């Protein structure tokens, strides 16, 4: 059986384990300016753990967020490009046959730093969402990542904007929703959500930053909705408390679940928030066994 590609885990989780305080509106993107060598080290830790794919530290990066820190547009563009360069550098340092860089494009809600990516429906028009997403996607694409990761998308309307934008840019992409109770976080049908993968711009579709127990039912809907290969990278199972800016609850991510996702058609499997390198090692091992 061909093993799915293994995605990394929580980049911010590893950076926090290395001693960095990321209680900040820019989250891990702050370190693109302050400590780029630490981002390289975190990517390298996941590569050593068995990951084939590194996801860049650009998830929560935005021109508005950088501007709030007094960072110019030109410097913000340089930092976005740096996110790809640092992930690429980590792969070169660690070597190996497969080293893939996925440029992270988080939802609009992520840049608000208030948990909005777990609710969606921001009250913005599609044009406003396009004006937000397209420029940073274009800058990330300039650094030639292997793929754009349109991830943690809570809302079908925002997904439509992202899919249209990536079609214009002409770079491979995956589309990954955050889900709850068999619907998008904005309460929409997953059948409708996964149907957007029919665009030629989307190579993979699936779910991320959702509880592990939510993944298999969502993948089964996706498999019935599209022939595209699937992707799964949940969080640890804990919940984000946006008021106190902390994760609460128990972890329940298991290697046995990863095998079920593989059987359901997932060709890329990994972790998201609160999933450290050692968990990626366990997933990678599980995916090489029957």
From TrEMBL:
Its EC number is 2.1.1.10. Keywords: Metal-binding, Methyltransferase, Transferase, Zinc. Zn(2+) binds at residues 209, 272-273. Signal peptide: none annotated. Residues 1-287 form the Hcy-binding domain. The keyword Methyltransferase applies. The keyword Transmembrane helix does not apply. GO terms for biological process: methylation. InterPro entries: BHMT-like, HCY_dom, HCY_dom_sf, Hcy_S-methyltransferase. This is Homocysteine S-methyltransferase. It comes from Saccharopolyspora griseoalba.
């Amino acid at each position: 059986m061909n093993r799915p590609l293994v995605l990394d885990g929580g980049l911010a989780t590893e950076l926090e384990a290395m001693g960095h305080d990321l209680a900040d509106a820019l989250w891990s993107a702050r370190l693109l300016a302050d400590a780029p060598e630490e981002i390289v080290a975190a990517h390298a830790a996941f590569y050593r753990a068995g990951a084939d794919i590194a996801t860049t530290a650009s998830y929560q990066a935005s021109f508005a967020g950088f501007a709030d820190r007094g960072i110019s547009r030109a410097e913000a563009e340089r930092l976005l490009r740096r996110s790809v360069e640092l992930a690429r550098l980590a792969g070169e340092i660690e070597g190996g046959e497969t080293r893939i860089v996925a440029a992270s494009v988080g939802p609009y809600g992520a840049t608000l730093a208030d948990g909005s990516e777990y609710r969606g429906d921001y009250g913005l028009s599609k044009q406003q969402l396009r004006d937000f997403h397209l420029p940073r996607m274009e800058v990330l694409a300039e650094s030639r990542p292997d793929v754009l990761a349109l991830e943690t998308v809570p809302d079908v309307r925002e997904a439509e904007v992202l899919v249209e934008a990536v079609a214009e840019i002409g770079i491979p992409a995956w589309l990954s929703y955050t889900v709850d109770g068999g619907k998008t976080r904005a309460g929409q049908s997953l059948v409708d959500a996964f149907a957007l993968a029919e665009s030629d711009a989307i190579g993979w579709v699936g779910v991320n930053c959702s509880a592990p127990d939510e993944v298999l039912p969502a993948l089964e809907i996706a498999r019935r909705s599209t022939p595209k290969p699937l992707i799964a990278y949940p969080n640890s199972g804990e919940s984000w408390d946006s008021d106190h800016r902390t994760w609460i609850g128990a972890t329940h991510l298991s290697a046995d679940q990863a095998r079920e996702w593989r059987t359901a058609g997932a060709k890329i499997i990994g972790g998201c928030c609160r999933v450290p390198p050692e968990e990626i090692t366990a997933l990678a091992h599980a995916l090489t066994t029957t």
